[in-house]
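Problem 3 from the worked examples.
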Amino acid sequence: MQQERILVSKKYIRIIIFLCLFNSVLYSQENKPSYFGHRVTIGNYNSFWEDDIGIIEAGYDFIINFLYIAPEYNILDFGIGLSGLFAFDKLGNPRQPVLGLGLNGGMRLYTPALRKTRIFLEGVMSLVTYAKEFPENGTIVNGGWHLGGGIEYNIENATKLFSKILWFHTSNNDVYGRDRNPSINAVGIAAGIQL
């Protein structure tokens, strides 16, 4: 009786081990595209107009990939994430940074790959809360967007390096009027890694 239970339990253990191994082979990264990913970005944006501001931004996004044309290459992705910003207003010498925290939602549209490289267009909407009024005499909460494009290089499977050029816009919808609370525009570059 005891020996029968041991044989039956060994049989079930073998079946479970087989199913685990079969499942890992069936759903391995090489055989199936990655529908989810992570993106880390760092960028620097500067205004060359009367705004004279500078922004350094570091961010993380959780990515959902769509419409695969090959296991490594999708056409579209959506991301949602957080970013930290150091914004420098034109006033003061030396300029004092204003710390901000942003909630971002974005989309990328990719071209088909040429070897391991492809081009993309990107749009991001964000809601940013600053530690103090930005710009000075503005508001603490600002809306914004990035719009631009870049190039991506596929290192291996789901690991990609990218760089991009973006137009950065932030405003608070003229809450106090344009004279007191103007919108800010800047151009910048960013780079990062997607896993």
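Problem 4, a separate protein:
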Amino acid sequence: MLFADTKTGHLLHILGTALAGQVLTQELAPANPHAIEMYGHLVIQVIVAAVTIWATIRKAMQRPEAVFKLPASGLPVAAGESSAAAAASPAEPTADVGKS
């Protein structure tokens, strides 16, 4: 059969013909190492850009987290820290300050 009946067969036929043309015209000369390195850097940059764009879009599509504001009196405090935290807290002055 000269031509393939499927899309994959067509693509393989095109690539095979291109490769045969490359062999006949340029004998598949090895590439310059610098060019290979530059193509490698380009591929890595494209992958990083794609992952960054995907993560940004994924983050933008997330639902926001529910935040509940609790009063400070509702927070659990360890037994030994309750008196030390109350004595060291400058935010709430006590009634005994300044009476001595």
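Solution to problem 4. The chain has a mean pLDDT of 75. The radius of gyration is 35 Å.
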